[in-house]
Design a protein that fits this description.
Elements: H1 3-6, E1 11-16, E2 25-30, E3 36-42, E4 57-58, E5 65-66, E6 72-74, E7 78-80, H2 82-88, H3 93-103, H4 109-116, H5 120-132, E8 136-139, E9 143-146, H6 148-161, H7 165-180
Parallel strand pairs: 1-3
Antiparallel strand pairs: 2-3, 4-5, 6-7, 8-9
Helix pairs in contact: 3-5, 3-6, 4-5
């Protein structure tokens, strides 16, 4: 039996793994006082801080570890974190709602207000932001048209908002409106 096998652990610690640490690791150290400390480092989602199991994703831009709820499937089968998505498509929840309605051919500010309860002036600001940001275009006869960049942003943000009560309700409102039209 080696001295390694006979080592007595005086203290056990559990720590959160740093960004860039991808596996459960155990570090055993003996201090100058002769005490042996075993530290287990557990990987967590760098966005929501949930403990990660065996499967997780990495943001292609910043290399943060992401759980399934926080990862966003992005361009060309890449994964991105919410912070980096926000830097590429700086949308708010309200912007997403307005864009989603426009994508469903609901582009009247009054109707958008009625469905989302977003004040009309804010709806107009969101529409202006979407046009100026290249997320949608204005068409003379057909209202607005969502651009490829807008579709990418809708797809990306919908992954983060999936399952949220207000988004489920918004989907129902859109279905109801489309069926009545």
């Amino acid at each position: 039996m080696s001295s390694e096998d006979e080592r007595v652990i005086d203290e056990e610690r559990i720590e959160i793994a740093e960004e860039g640490e991808f596996e459960n690791t155990t570090i055993t150290q003996t201090g100058s006082d002769g005490r042996t400390v075993e530290t287990k480092r557990i990987p967590i989602c760098d966005h929501c801080l949930r403990k990660l199991g065996g499967d997780f994703s990495l943001c292609y831009k910043c290399r943060k570890k992401l759980c399934d709820k926080c990862k966003v499937d992005f361009r060309n089968n890449k994964t991105i974190c919410p912070q980096d998505l926000r830097s590429i498509h700086p949308w708010t929840r309200q912007t997403f709602k307005v864009a989603l309605l426009v994508a469903n051919s609901i582009d009247n500010a009054g109707i958008i207000h009625k469905i989302t309860k977003i004040p009309k002036n804010e709806v107009r600001e969101k529409i202006r932001f979407l046009i100026e940001g290249g997320y949608m275009d204005r068409h003379n006869f057909f209202g607005y048209c969502i651009s490829e960049s807008g579709l990418e942003a809708i797809h990306s943000w919908s992954q983060l908002f999936r399952g949220a009560t207000d988004m489920i309700q918004l989907d129902e409102e859109i279905k109801g409106f489309v069926l009545r039209s």
